[in-house]
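Justification of resources, computational component.

The compute hours requested in this renewal are based largely on the per-chain cost of generating structure records like the one below. Each record pairs the submitted sequence with a full structure-token output. That output is archived, and it is also reused by downstream analysis tasks.
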Amino acid sequence: MSCVLHAAGLEFDVQAFLATSPLRAEAVYGNPAALPGPAGPARGPSGFGVSVSGARPDDLHGQVRDAVLFLDLHEDELRRLGSFAGVEVVALEFRVRWKGGVPRTESFPPELLWRAGALDITLQVSHDTDEWKES
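The structure output for this chain reads:
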């Protein structure tokens, strides 16, 4: 997965959201149940990830194109996700590999920024060099 949509929150009931969602999680993490900790019960965040793009990590343009299409296709569901009880963050993570180990400048087009901003979706970039291995 190169571009992934993440949603998470301390009080987010992931299973309740996904039970009625057309979004299909590739990964689900966390547990809304209290976990024992040194200062008493504590919760960790719960969340999920959805693959947005199959473009390679060295194809940021392809990831952006796929992300814009994803936001258009799922706009109503992403609004529901952003306002779902317990959701604290919704983010698009772009996983980028720099060719030749030399960083280069890339930018996000206004079309993506506008669509993501209108849905209160954060943009994140994870990057590495050629040695980065796809997961």
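Strands lie at 3-9, 27-29, 46-53, 89-97, 122-128. The mean pLDDT is 87.
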